[in-house]
Amino acid sequence: MTFYCLAGVRGGAATPEMPFRYGNQILQWLLRDFRHSLATHMPQRGPKGMGSSIEGGLTAGALIGYVAALILIAALASGRLTTIRLCAVVAGLLWLVQAAFVSGDGMAAVLSAALAGIAGAQFAGARRADRGARLNAEEQAFGAAMLPGLGKAQLRGLLDQGYWLSARPGDILTREGEPVPHLYYLAQGSATVHSAGRPVGQCGAESFVGEVTVLSGDPATGTVEVESPARLWCVPAARLRLYAGQHDEVRRTLETAFRHSLSAKLVAANRRVTVA
Question: How far is CA 221 from CA 8, 30, 174, 192, in A?
Fold first, then answer.
């Protein structure tokens, strides 16, 4: 692959049509230095050059490919779309270097450039959306406490499906054996969980109410009654299921948050039983 600058100088005069390979040469120097660094630690066998193999059959091109693949695997393991897109850009650029300057595979270079370009455009678009999203202090605290995996624009979209309200002691949020009408986030205040008419647990600030069955549509496993003046964000269950079905990353993030919330409640319940 050859890189061209916009203008060159020949005899003091600018010649726009003159090709320059400075970028190509720089990358070749970097790869040559990289191979030399490897050779000082691992003996080579086979002919010297760009594709020379290192002990065990590993080549410089293969090493670049392995690094790119490991970057993508780590990104996929994170489960965060923003991280996946950014790492796809890096992996695509590494594969582009490998295809263009190591293997000389033109089609692989085109595909690698397409991967990096598409992922880069999506990453830039998500960043622009995040910069344009507006969250007040209450909403930022909700995102940081319960849904840290979502970007600002994703959190804004989810919050717009519901609304904030205040609740008084005695208000019922869910009823045992009945479908959960809303998912609640308890920003302030507390609530008591009843089962078969007996109190069995507590929901404190920064916890969900109704998270166990809201996505499945199954009946509530307990009755939740507000115990002290509370500030809540709530979203209708049907609307949440529809929105989560259309936004995979939001659904995965919610499911993770629900598991953490339920785990925290179980730990708190076990502590109360131990103290009693």
Answer: 75, 62, 9, 13
Answering whether pTM is above 0.85, one says no
Q: Is 230 exposed, middle or buried (0-12, 13-18, 19+ CB in 10 A)?
A: buried
Read off the DSSP letter of residue 176: B
- The pair phi, psi for residue 128, each rounded to 5°, is -65, -40
- DSSP-derived secondary structure for 211-274: TTTTTTTPBBSSEEEEEEEEEEEEEEHHHHHHHHHH-HHHHHHHHHHHHHHHHHHHHHHHHHHH
Query: Using one digit for the tens of pLDDT, what is the confidence trace for 8-26?
Result: 333 444 333 333 344 444 4
Short-list 244, 253, 251, CA closest to 143: 253
Q: Locate the domains of the chain by residue range.
A: 1-40, 59-132, 137-275
At the top level of CATH, the class of 137-275 is: mainly beta
pLDDT in tens, 120-138: 998 888 888 888 889 999 9
